[in-house]
Design brief:
Shape: elongated
Strand order of the largest sheet: 2-3-5
Bound molecules: iron/sulfur cluster
Structural class: alpha+beta
Low-confidence stretches: none
Oligomer: single chain
Strand content: 15-25%
Number of helices: 4
Helix content: 10-25%
Radius of gyration: 24 Å
Distance between the termini: 71 Å
CATH topology of one domain: Alpha-Beta Plaits
Largest sheet: 3 strands, antiparallel
Order of helices and strands: HEHEEHEEH
CATH architecture of one domain: 2-Layer Sandwich
Length: 166
């Protein structure tokens, strides 16, 4: 059983909150009837720029939840110059992210060395069936349209040039 002073303190908080709600209105947003605009850099959903992906697998290896599934195959591309050797390249066959497992840590976006993954602030993609939270590369590619332009860094946040020791 709670101690009496603690109970009184708790009831006081409830009374204060109730009074504030009655006078100023609720602080919560009544989603989905009301919607807040997410900030530009909000982590809503990950978008894939397929042309930039080299199937290096780094994102899948670093993902702590193991929820990125990638498959690809190698092929020979024509040489860059006449008389040169054909180039070995990777083609992306499958790139899925399972959003029922993803914890939105952003590691995959950070580690991608080829600028193939981006955050979009879009967040309305809940599904009645959990299996539909697996987004394939076509769906991840469609999210690219919702990726905002890169915002300039805030003043003073740019990396300072390193001092070269003499
Ligand atoms: S945001 Fe994190 S958990 Fe989600 S896919 Fe990327 S690395 Fe995995
Ligand atoms: S790290 Fe980037 S380039 Fe490598 S597989 Fe992932 S998305 Fe593709």
């Amino acid at each position: 059983m709670p101690k009496i002073p603690g109970l009184i303190k708790g009831l006081a908080v409830t009374a204060r909150t109730l009074a504030r709600t009655v006078t100023k209105g609720a602080v919560t947003v009544q989603y989905p009837h009301e919607k807040e605009e997410p900030v530009t850099r909000a982590r809503g959903v990950i978008a894939l720029k397929e042309d930039n992906c080299t199937v290096c697998m780094l994102c899948a290896r670093e993902c702590p939840d193991w929820c990125i599934y990638i498959e690809g195959h190698k092929y020979l591309a024509p040489p860059r110059r006449e008389g040169g050797k054909p180039r070995q390249k990777n083609a992306l066959d499958r790139f899925d992210i399972d959003y029922s497992l993803c914890m939105y840590c952003g590691i995959c976006v950070e580690v991608c060395p080829f600028e193939a993954l981006f955050w979009s602030p879009e967040y309305e993609y809940s599904e009645p069936r959990i299996a539909d939270l697996l987004h394939d590369k076509e769906r991840l590619g469609e999210w690219m349209e919702t990726v905002p332009d890169f915002e300039p860094y805030e003043a003073g946040s740019e990396a300072k040039p390193k001092k070269v020791p003499r």
